[in-house]
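ok so i was messing around last nite and threw this chain in just to see what happens. nothing serious, just curious
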Amino acid sequence: MNLTYRVHFLGCKANQSDALSYAGMLQRAGWAEATETDSVSLAIVQTCTVTMSADAQGRQLARKIKRESPQTKVLLTGCYAQHAEQELLRLPEVDYVIGNLHPRKFEMLSVIAGQAISEAYPDFPMPAETPRTRPYIKIQDGCDARCSYCIIPSVRGKSRSLPPAEVLRRIESYRDGGYREMILTGISMGGYGKDLDPKTSLSQLMEQINALQGEFKIRLSSLEPEEIDDEFVRVFSDTGRFQPHLHLPLQSASDRVLKRMRRQYLFHRYDSILNQIAARMPDVSFGTDILVGFPDEDRDAFADTYRYLNSAPFSYAHVFPFSPRPGTSAAAYQSSASHQEITDRASKLRRLAEKKNISYRKKFLGRNLNALWLHGTREALTGNYIRVQLDPFHDSNFESIRIDSVEDSHTRGIAVQ
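result:
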């Protein structure tokens, strides 16, 4: 009987990379990814635990898989699996639980796979071979920060890094395989290299990547503002190797709120970073996260955040209403806003973010932008992170597209040979 798997993931890009790493280990043990018509031997659910809602989504997904395919074994991995192993093992729809930091991870996976599994870089297994347009390369895991609202350090552990030589080897392997863009990801990527001997930094790694030969681009996943220095700004902005897109979580434009959150930067530093990069790269796409309704966020603090989102050069924003997360110090804080006020603030910011996104996309009407066809879709993704519906549809044999129309929910363009 063929052994097959299917991967499901929730949460961040690092979670998606981790899910593909589990798939890669199974592939190397002789398993195959299930097709639509295959029976599935093992469903891998890469869970998230950043909120209690994310926990619930993990449980719901496991139930759905078991209900639709009772013979499929369900493996929960990831952050929720680390946070609540015993709770999850009691669920009838869950067969296996392997958290991020489980001391017997590879031993357990070897039993499940029916073959010994080991990895040269245990925190950074090679992902599965997939037809994706843009492969992930996880270069860092863990977090040494202690934001008062965040549980991730306790389920991801201390910051640790994939050595530069191995990062470069993986990039070259993907480059030689014909990939034109790769995504570097991690939990706290700006902390890259501090644990290595000799120590290094993300900026130094970027310099080494820039020196590689070949026509390929690198996209960076989310970075914390305190992790960006002047050298990063220079390498990112001036080399041409890195896609003009950065996701920089703001959380709040109020210093009082940032201090209560135990963020490691103040507002003026964040604003300075955006201005420096925008001055060097006028078309850059800035994305951000905003946490609304944190206990010290009064009406004035919210107004500060709203004004800044309105005035700063953001192309999109993810808005999250604060809810106390057990296991964090902020869970004990007293909120200064009612649930309805927090909901209203989040809605107001989301409406503004939608307007900002439409305005950003309209800047490029009639312009040609470098883009990649997204495998399995009728869409392309530009270097500055605009998803474009191709009209008419083209295959992957193009290098740029012309933006022809921008509507509320989508952008249309034509491939340019």
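not much to say yet. The domain at 4-113 is CATH 3.40.50.12160 (Rossmann fold).
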